[in-house]
Target: NAD-dependent epimerase
Amino acid sequence: MHVAIIGAAGMVGVKLTQALIEPSARHGLEIEALTLIDVVEPPLPETFQGELRREVRDLSAAGEAQRLVEQRPDLIFHLAAIVSGEAERDFDKGYRINLDGTRELFDAIRQANLSSGYCPRLVFTSSIAVFGAPLPERIGDDFHSTPLTSYGTQKAICELLLADYTRRGFFDGIGIRLPTLCVRPGKPNLAASGFFSNIIREPLVGQPAILPVPREVRHWFASPRSAVGFLLHAATIDTALIGPRRSLSMPGVSATVDDQIEALRRVAGDAAVALIEERPDPAIIAMVSGWAPGFDAERATALGFTAERDFEQIIRAHIEDELEP
Amino acid sequence: MHVAIIGAAGMVGVKLTQALIEPSARHGLEIEALTLIDVVEPPLPETFQGELRREVRDLSAAGEAQRLVEQRPDLIFHLAAIVSGEAERDFDKGYRINLDGTRELFDAIRQANLSSGYCPRLVFTSSIAVFGAPLPERIGDDFHSTPLTSYGTQKAICELLLADYTRRGFFDGIGIRLPTLCVRPGKPNLAASGFFSNIIREPLVGQPAILPVPREVRHWFASPRSAVGFLLHAATIDTALIGPRRSLSMPGVSATVDDQIEALRRVAGDAAVALIEERPDPAIIAMVSGWAPGFDAERATALGFTAERDFEQIIRAHIEDELEP
Model:
């Protein structure tokens, strides 16, 4: 089969590519061709034996989505997005990339469906940002999407389009609402949510980190490894089991910052914890107060999606995947 | 103030216009100018003493929304839409009118807001079609929107845009999810929901009507008079009380077809009821099975929106407004 990844140069895109081409992969997909797309050139996956295309495209530009669809990929992962902070700062860019770019893709597929019966599996990464405060401690699968950011609004709109285009038979869509991914590898991130990763990743390698919120703040996490697992499961699941509600809140770990810190202590000791400096930032505290504390994720769990069970497992996944290569 | 009604030639638009210009009106709005817009010419409201414009425009056409916004109406009612059945038959037209047309309007206001601080009140008519089966007997205010039609999808997307544009301060938006309006005046309607009105309106004037669904079917109703009341209340309410969740399920009457028929019997006797012929239609039965049986409408009720309390009141409102002029 031919697999296309839109947003292949991002953190999740790179890890997904690696998981797809690993010879030991257990995803069961027979991949003959792989098309990697992003606005910057995706890294070269060197071990892949099949037909590989790397394409620098902005799918929101006229005709670009159509050119991808002309290649008739059997499976499309649509991971590309302007992140939350940028979509909030730049209203036009956020709507153009996150909404119009996605709609261009969906409509290009629809045209191909109408002309030739083309009907790919489409895995779309949504976000828990489709939910906005006030929120219950555990958000159920029937809870409404009332986002408090333009990013969350754009994701919620794409979920609605995904369901309608799937209902119409234009493609076989599934949306997965990712928890906040933690521990994000790489440099400390300026995103408002970056500290959740910083306070684990930096102390693990002997570096200091700043904690800008109180320790009782509770949020919803999964590892990047789990995110890749969600995507692979969404790519292979029998979608007849899903029904018309095509977007699912993924499982994860509901943890307070204090839970994070105590898990770090168990894994790396007091010395690591001592590297965390508490420096409250009212702007970040205000933002985080509207974020989701947890989900029941009953539908996704029943459909076989799995994540870590506690924050210590999330830290150990990070150590195995990033620090013990 | 200057009031604009988009969709002024429709049934609700005409009734709203009438309510706005009545000298006895209790809505408390001082209306100096009224702009009536639709794709066909809205009827002339003869008693209006202020400045009146009637404009034939399709707001989804390039530049049309901008031309409306240049007139800087203080209050905009956006009622225009392609109805459910047509949006389902004609995918492109439904998205163009119901989604892109609304977005053109919102963006034209945003541009005016950015350039001059213009910030009108915007009352948007959404629909209970944003909900799709399976549904609880009484849908709560936190229940998610999972529409099963393209029309419902388009309305749900516009609700999300309305909330985001309001949050950003581009306008002061409020969305009202109308129940199925009953009794619709005029000729028998070919819409799937038309029979709910036909089986009351026709027997009241001695004409036969066809009932295509079983009597135990339950649905959610309000009179056209209540719809106008919702719109006027939405136009004048202190929106600071609403919070960021800007779309509200309106109050109404949860009634079975049997409740409808027994109310008709109390108002008009057995002879009227005998004019109803039961002729089950599997296609209509299937469609109606996914419709909302009822709402708790707690938020809207707390905010002062009111509707009829039982179906007999709905019939009496029809008789007063349509048969005793």
Chain A touches chain B at residues 91, 132, 142-148, 150, 153, 156-157, 160-161, 163-164, 167-168, 244-245 (CB under 8 Å). Chain A has a mean pLDDT of 95.
